[in-house]
Write a structure and sequence with these properties.
Number of helices: 17
Oligomer: single chain
Largest sheet: 9 strands, mixed
Bound molecules: glycyl-adenosine-5'-phosphate
Number of domains: 2
CATH class of the largest domain: Alpha Beta
Strand order of the largest sheet: 3-9-10-18-15-14-13-11-12
CATH superfamily of the largest domain: Bira Bifunctional Protein, Domain 2
Structural class: alpha+beta
Shape: globular
CATH topology of the largest domain: BirA Bifunctional Protein, domain 2
CATH architecture of the largest domain: 2-Layer Sandwich
Number of strands: 25
Distance between the termini: 28 Å
Radius of gyration: 25 Å
């Protein structure tokens, strides 16, 4: 399915709506509907369970969206968090210069300076995509949204463009209160805001989105001491290295994580490990291995804080694009905050009696919305007789649809009894309208993995029909066994 079909499916089936639609288009902002909010919550809960609660070495925080403005001075976002902008001289529409050029030349444009982008526009005579007017000189445009705090207008503050900084400024109180020792990570899920010049592709590039990030802190001497590396060293991944991109190669090579590390795709074992564990997570969630790759950033496109970044990219209908980034942020952020706050942020090693600024060996960072969109591209299928969302059962908005065969006699009472029992553990959907076939189709379309039909025999034998979304097979099961059967299916 293409992006327009996915957008219209989301609108129709209650996953995602354009925000405040009654007032017209408001680019870059979307609202989750009843089905979408469940999927989004499930993504966040599974991420948190997998990467925070199930690990001894990662703990979580939830920082405020507006924080001290000094944070953004120290982090470099006020000076460097910019995108290249070009304006049409005729219609005055503003465009993201690298995107307009890349669309016109039909090739990726990464990491060029604004002067080089201006030259490309002029050399190739690239015009405004809307009105064909002349495009102006490319300028840097800061992506942070500003607001004022308190009654004084001059008190400018910023909506955070990344959740990461809340982690850096809380690193000390977290360490003091939890007594965590490196290597350890601090995780956060929360809203981030970017005044994107041209938000596009539905949920892919938004102005308001939710990030899930981990900052993984180590002592520099631990860079090659990742205790979990062996578990992932033989994982085969598609790779597009910096070297290959410099040669103009755009096809992926398949290699193991350890070979990619040897070839310099990753900066350290930790950097490789945190990429591998997420790559595997996406595969486990059902992403087709052919649609996933690790692309190393070329030097020119690295963010101001990064000594090396790889993106886990997905092959979207609009091309290979970043699903998640994994950056080696070095000691950059903590050093900057120490400098600007004048507070000591060093770690004291009790064994060596030495102090040092901890090193962020890996920052895995992704938005809920990019995962959401990726899973729709992977899972939404038009089959002969139905539209079905083959999303991983753990992420499905409802786990079970419960239907009385007919809406009379003792059947609705029995069906509501089953609903009450199962909904204590699983999010269930009760539906008593239309034919059973129609009810199955409706649940297929929103990804409900299991449906239970209560019929006249149920009243006698306390058994019901359990139907599987993917195989459409039906089996007769005892109602008292349902909870356990579903539990086993969900953890398969
Ligand atoms: N703290 C690092 C950081 O923010 P980034 O590559 O700018 O790095 C990380 O963003 C992730 O956040 C991306 O991989 C993507 O999943 C998500 N993301 C970034 N900008 C986004 C946008 N405008 N809309 C939706 N998701 C976005």
């Amino acid at each position: 399915m293409n992006i327009d079909e996915i957008t219209s499916y989301c609108r129709r089936r209650g996953l995602v709506f354009p925000t405040a639609e009654i007032y017209g288009n408001y680019s870059g902002f979307y609202d989750y509907g009843p089905v979408g909010v469940e999927i989004s919550n499930n993504i966040k809960n599974l991420w948190w369970k997998t990467f925070v609660q199930s690990r001894e070495d990662v703990t979580g925080i939830n920082g405020s969206i507006i924080t001290h403005p000094k944070v953004w001075e120290a982090s470099g976002h006020i000076a460097s968090f910019t995108d290249p902008l070009t304006e049409c001289a005729k219609c005055h529409k503003r465009w993201r210069a690298d995107h307009v050029i890349s669309d016109a030349l039909k090739k990726p444009i990464e990491g060029l300076k604004i002067e080089e982008l201006t030259k490309l526009i002029q050399k190739n005579n690239i015009k405004c995509p809307d009105c064909k007017g002349a495009l102006g000189v490319v300028q840097n445009f800061n992506q942070m949204f500003t607001t004022n705090v308190g009654a004084v207008e001059a008190n400018t503050a910023y909506l955070r463009p990344e959740t990461a900084q809340s982690i850096f400024v809380n690193y000390k109180p977290v360490m003091d209160s939890t007594r965590m020792k490196p290597p350890f990570g601090i995780a956060q899920i929360g809203k981030a805001f970017r005044n994107e010049i041209s938000p596009r592709n539905f949920l892919f590039r938004l102005r308001e989105f939710e990030q899930m990030e981990i900052e993984y802190f180590i002592q520099k001497k631990q860079l090659s001491e990742c205790a979990y590396f062996d578990e992932f060293k033989d994982l085969k991944v598609n790779v597009l290295s910096e070297k290959e991109q410099h040669k103009g190669i755009t096809t992926n090579s398949i290699m193991t994580i350890s070979k990619a590390l040897k070839e310099g795709v990753f900066n350290s074992e930790w950097h490789a490990y945190w990429t591998a564990i997420f790559y595997k997570w996406y595969l486990n969630l059902g992403v087709n291995p052919e649609n996933l790759r690790v692309r190393q950033h070329v030097k020119e496109e690295l963010s101001h804080y990064s000594a090396g970044t790889v993106d886990i990219e997905y092959n979207y209908p609009m091309g290979w694009k970043e699903l998640q980034g994994v950056a080696d942020r070095t000691t950059y952020d903590l050093t900057q905050h120490e400098l600007f706050s004048k507070e000591k942020l060093e770690y004291f090693d009790e064994e060596t009696r030495k102090k040092e600024i901890l090193y962020v060996a890996a920052e895995p960072s992704v938005s809920v919305e990019r995962i959401f969109l990726t899973l729709l591209f992977e899972g939404l299928k038009e089959e002969k007789e139905r539209t079905v969302l083959k999303i991983h059962p753990l992420l499905a908005p409802y786990k079970i649809g419960i239907f009385p065969l007919v809406n009379k006699d003792a059947l609705p009472v029995k069906a509501r009894e089953v609903f009450k029992e199962l909904s204590a553990e699983y999010n269930c959907f009760y539906d008593d309208s239309g034919s059973i076939g129609r009810r199955y189709r409706r649940q297929d379309e929103i990804g409900t993995p299991y449906c239970i039909t209560i019929d006249f025999d149920t009243i006698k034998d306390n058994a019901a029909t359990l139907r599987d979304r993917d195989t459409m097979k039906q089996e007769r099961v005892k109602i008292k066994d349902l909870k356990e059967i579903i539990r086993k299916k969900l953890i398969q």
